[in-house]
Specification:
Layout (H helix, E strand, L loop, with lengths): L2 H22 L2 H21 L7 E7 L4 H11 L4 E5 L4 H9 L5 E5 L3 H7 L6 E4 L4 H30 L23 H32 L12 H30 L8 H24 L4 H17 L22 H15 L7 H26 L1
Parallel strand pairs: 1-2, 1-3
Antiparallel strand pairs: 3-4
Helix pairs in contact: 1-8, 2-7, 2-8, 7-8, 7-9, 7-10, 7-11, 8-9, 9-10, 9-11, 9-12, 11-12
Length: 383
């Protein structure tokens, strides 16, 4: 090893050791970098649930016949709707809907059973609280779907009764198979995306605030009188946070597999490679924010301004195809989107590098671009 290289390695080691000591002396920082991500993963993993079930439902049965009771039992059988009230009239049920006691009202009119027995058209009414569109769509779809299938079954039964003996009605049976997440568990889908969000929050904001704190304390100004090259100083300052980021993501997938049964079907080496490219971007953003901030408050606000849109435009919470058409192209500028797509493909589908090469290339391009910009700004600030 040449003398110059030995000197650079020694300088880098000194900066890294200094950053580690400074970080470990701050108990709040240790908590933020280690314990907080685990607690946030648990909170998000248990709190975010995209499944809609047990929707509070009021039943107004004005018919009181075996047919109406059978219809009500069938509509409540799958657990989407939960029977919580039996008001005597529709106005009473509407008042429950208005005060939020129930979200759905099922109304079976008088004569419902008689009309079914006669084989004539009958009606059932479903009142849904539309303030929560997701719950309204699921609950209304469940009620309407059941009634539609029940009407089709009754019609088929009447037709079949008139067919000659031995003849049956043609039918098509659909047998769906769910791949990768057969139980349709929300945490299995959400935890990989949550891990990406936590890395974004921790590395971006902590790096930006850490460098801003040094500027406030005056320690960064002391660098001007040292022989440290700017690249060595910059790498030494961000290297510990990259290691912490890799530790946090390891903690996240371990907790996800242990607590939420998130599968790990793909290569862990590929997973960590994609994570390293992603950290190149998040740390670079934190470094860039620190170069345009004078105080820790400015650094925090600047990091937050980047983090919030990145989370919303990543597709973690809302599918990208459900966003407005003019907004969807903006998601291509978001590194979190590509990281989330790659991680979900690797962990849940067992994807190989060939299948995530587009996401890897995007993360590499964004990482190199933001690091080049941040390095240029950082060099100017310390020179």
């Amino acid at each position: 090893m040449s003398e110059t290289l030995q000197r650079l390695v020694g300088q880098l080691r000194a900066v890294v050791v200094k950053e580690i000591r400074q970080t470990t002396q701050d108990r709040r920082m240790i908590f933020l970098l280690t314990v907080a991500p685990f607690l946030q993963l648990l909170l998000f993993g248990f709190a975010i649930d995209l499944d809609v079930d047990q929707v509070p439902t009021a039943v107004v049965d004005l018919d009181h016949t075996p047919e109406s009771r059978e219809t009500i039992a069938g509509m409540l059988a799958d657990g989407t709707l939960a029977h919580v009230a039996t008001p005597p009239s529709v106005p009473d049920a509407e008042r429950l809907l208005e005060d939020g006691t129930v979200a759905v009202v099922l109304v079976l009119p008088e004569g419902y059973g008689r009309d079914l027995a006669r084989g004539v058209p009958t009606q059932a009414q479903v009142l849904v609280d539309g303030t929560d569109p997701t719950r309204a769509n699921v609950a209304g779809g469940a009620a309407s779907g059941y009634l539609g299938l029940e009407g089709l079954r009754l019609a088929q039964a009447q037709i079949a009764a008139r067919l000659p003996e031995g003849r049956t009605l043609p039918s098509v049976v659909v047998r769906p198979r769910l791949f990768y997440n057969p139980t349709q568990s929300t945490p299995i889908y959400m935890v990989p995306g949550i891990a990406g969000m936590l890395l974004l929050i921790i590395t971006t904001i902590v790096v930006s605030m850490g460098l801003a704190r040094e500027r406030e304390m005056g320690t960064l100004e002391a660098v001007r009188v040292t022989p440290l090259p700017t690249p060595v100083l910059m790498v030494g300052k961000i290297a510990p946070f990259v290691v912490v980021g890799l530790f946090d993501v390891t903690l996240a997938i371990t907790a996800g597999a242990w607590i939420f049964d998130v599968p790990i079907r793909g290569s862990l080496l590929l997973f960590y490679g994609i994570t390293a490219l992603y950290l190149l971007t998040t740390v670079g953003v934190g470094l860039f924010v620190s170069t345009v901030s004078q105080t820790q408050q400015q650094a925090f606000l600047g990091g937050f301004i980047f983090v919030l849109p990145a989370m919303l435009l990543s597709g973690t919470m809302t599918p990208i195809h459900a966003m407005p058409a003019w907004m969807q192209p903006l998601t291509a500028l978001n590194p979190l989107r590509f990281y989330m797509e790659a991680v979900r493909a690797i962990l849940l589908k067992g994807a190989t590098f060939t299948e995530v090469r587009v996401q890897a290339a995007a993360l590499l391009v964004y990482g190199l671009a933001i690091m080049a910009l941040a390095t240029s700004r950082f060099r100017k600030r310390v020179s």
